[in-house]
Amino acid sequence: MAFPSFFLLLLLPLFSLPSFSFSQPYKNITLGSSLIASPRNHTNHSYWSSPSGDFAFGFLDTGTNGFLLAIWFNKIPENTIVWSANPNHLVPSGSILQLTTHGQLVLNDSAANQIWAANFQTENTTVSHAAMLDTGNFILAAANNNSQVVLWQSFDEPTDTILPSQVMKPDTILIARFSKTNYSDGRFHLRMESDGNLVLYTRIVPLGSQGNPYWSSNTVGSGFNLVFDLSGSIYVSAKNGTALTYLTSKNPSSNQHNFYHRAIFEYDGVFRQYIYSKSDEAWKSVSDFIPLNICASINNGLGSGVCGYNSYCVTGEDQRPICKCPQGYYMVDPNDEMQGCRPSFIPQICSLAEANSFDFFSIERSDWTDSDYEGYSGTNEDWCRRACLDDCFCAAVVFETGNCWKKKFPLSFGRVNPDFRGKALIKIRRDNSTLIDDNLVKRGKDKTLLIIGLVLLGSSGFLIFISLLAVLIVYRIKKKRSEGVMGKVAASIGVNVRAFSYEELNKATNGFTEKLGSGAFATVYKGILDDDDCLDKDNKLVAVKKLEIEVKEGEQEFKAEVSAIARTNHKNLVRLLGFCNEHLHRLIVYEFMPNGCLADFLFGPSQLNWYERIQLARETARGLCYLHEECKTQIIHCDIKPQNILLDESLRARISDFGLAKLLKENQTRTTTAIRGTKGYVAPEWFRSNLPITVKVDVYSFGIVLLEIISCRRSFELEVEDENEMVLADWAYDCFKERRVDMLVRKDDDEAKGDMKTVEKLVMIAIWCIQEEPSLRPSMKKVLQMLEGVVEVSIPPDPSSFISTIQ
């Protein structure tokens, strides 16, 4: 009797213990049964099927060097997956799934390491068997007279798909897969919230944190479950089972015998329902899409949008987003268009003469939201173009009816919107410019060589031999030249460190896959060196910093960082292991810091205690003191901030990221340079014309960092109870002046609150460091002496008092 079974399935989430009788047939899988991951042509024991054979549970060979423990439609040629146990980690051949004699469902790899287990808690009840049901639900059950009690079921832990009779309870989520063929967690998730609202969110990968919502059912307070009923309807229900909001058309097909049904939250962020006619043998979408226009739905927040950075979204068939690169750009990963695009040319250098080397690629009715940094009204298109050409920071402009918006690099949230009346103008280098990407030229040469080789190989056996010999000779010559070039590069930079090839670092980082962090000009990846490449035989882990923006300034910053850090040797500085400078590939290899950066501990959930923070402040000061006063070549770091203070295995502070460093020649105490550093930590003299830059800019930045270490909050925060607390430096001085420095540690542990004398001393040191007049700031040597108690700390003046008296 189908109706009673369905009625009980709908009531299932309302029960604390899922116990019910099945009228549908099933095959019991007995305790002690197991499956082995192996190709199908080698064994028939890689899965358990449902009684009808419609569904299978077991190991599915993905064809990508691994198996997925999954449930799939077994009578469909493409083996459509509806559930998987551990999608982020494929398992190797020989892995075993076992229903143990104790009733545990456990997945072990071929080395007997546990990969996954079905987690459930019961009292006085044990699993007696498992079953793959014809609904597509896999269960672990206990026998109870003529019925069975379900202790665990795959329907309660969905991945990206739901099936008829399945109910999503509050706080259950679907996570879209990364791509059509990559089953790991992707960029979007769907959540049935505890407040009754069904919400679609972007997902910040690779960390997996929740991003911005871009669609909701608007059922807050009234909704309860997401139901996929046996008629094929999908809706948000109230607690009493009443349908509140239909996500799809009612009753798309009532004939369950001739159709398969499924609803999937797909990799492009769209929730779609499909039916499969057993006569047509093809999946077809049968209802509206959620959301109706994905390109228009995601237009702000963290991340890049539906498509990746510098890519724009066009709505295609079935509301599927098509990601395109503007002219002059190419896809970062041709196999994953949602990864975004990168320029095939060198972006504009900040020189007036460079403006004539650029033109624009126009995209009608397109916008790039959330990338604005300047806007103008009452203009025309020619003025808008000129304004972008004259601004080397401008990557594109959007012009609409007299309004002009400048867009920064990388471009984000690009889409073509039929309702938008403007256009996007993407800045690209003219074809006749000499500053083009050497890698693209190289690819063209490689194709030419391939064609010539094929012609020769088609002539005769003798020519084949001659061709192969020539290729070998050319290869050896190129290899020697490459080694010579790398040596010359190391010599030109004036350092004695290892010069890696790009191929070596590409291999070490597994194709630059595991990202540790990123900034405006570079991304840092985790790598593992081979034994032959490893400089430290006891530690093969490295951090590889890859400069992403290929500009001349990038070359200067690369040389500055390598030159600066290669000349250093201090326990509170990150050690340089090597570098790569091949064509436009510029990479720096550091020792790996396992505990991340100081910012993670100051502003994240796992904060350091008071005495650990004091020690890190002293260690950072020691590192800066070394750079300023103990190096043979004095170094101004220029970008001291918590993100650039890394922590080693002993939680010792190690200063990193010398990309903006300035080296001072012997007997030189100051220099002039363009504004650099990070907003919030930049000393005020950067913004005053004709004022030379000294090591005191690092002292100012250290003072801001010291205040952050004291208070465990950022230098600028909008969401504060009192607007006077928004700017940390100003608030800290007010607290000191009013003798209320305890306010700075009011949310801290008892150690800080019980050490107010030290808190006051550190605040005074920080205020001395952030004096707006550089000459009033102490040297880092004196700062260190104050921190260590060697020198008394006098009462500091108002940081802006000296400036105000001379204005």
UniProtKB/TrEMBL annotation:
Identification of the protein by name: Receptor-like serine/threonine-protein kinase
* List of residues binding ATP: K546
Domain Protein kinase residues, every copy: 510-791
Its Enzyme Commission number(s) read 2.7.11.1
Q: Where is the signal peptide?
A: 1-23
How is this protein annotated for GO cellular component?
membrane
Entry superkingdom = Eukaryota
Membership in a protein family:
Belongs to the protein kinase superfamily. Ser/Thr protein kinase family.
Enzyme class, spelled out = transferase
